[in-house]
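A reminder from the course coordinator: this example appears on the midterm review sheet, so study it carefully.

Given structure:
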């Protein structure tokens, strides 16, 4: 038989500026229809991890369907959430409270492919800002 070749697809990172300095970075893995894992990381103005006390995320598809996501903490400013997503464009509405009690309302956008890009490497990715 032929050896199996696997191509690793690096998720596209979307980001949004935090008013007053800093950024939130988000990515979906694997960014294909079905089960995905969302990663959110908050950064301060110097590029260090920003301590966040609480975060809530709602994913919204192109039709306006809203999907609240349950987040888990991975670090002071790093959170993950599992999401069952359909193909298409998704808007992530992120509400967070920093450890210093500052409220943040942010948004990032991602595309979810209809097919597995690992099995069809020539398929264009739709993941991005």
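Designed residues:
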């Amino acid at each position: 038989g032929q050896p199996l070749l696997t191509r690793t697809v690096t998720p596209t990172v979307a980001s949004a500026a935090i008013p007053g300095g800093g950024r939130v970075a988000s990515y979906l893995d694997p960014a294909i229809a079905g089960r995905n894992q969302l990663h959110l990381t908050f950064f301060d103005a110097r590029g260090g991890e920003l301590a966040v006390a609480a975060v809530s995320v709602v994913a919204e598809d192109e039709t306006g369907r809203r999907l609240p996501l349950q987040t888990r903490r991975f670090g002071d400013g790093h959170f993950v959430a599992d999401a069952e997503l359909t193909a298409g464009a998704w808007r992530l509405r992120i509400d967070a409270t920093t450890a210093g009690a500052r409220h943040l309302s942010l948004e990032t956008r991602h595309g979810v492919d209809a097919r597995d890009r690992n099995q069809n490497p020539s398929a264009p990715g739709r993941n991005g800002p």
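The CA atoms of residues 96 and 102 lie 8 Å apart. Confidence is low (pLDDT under 50) at residues 120-129.
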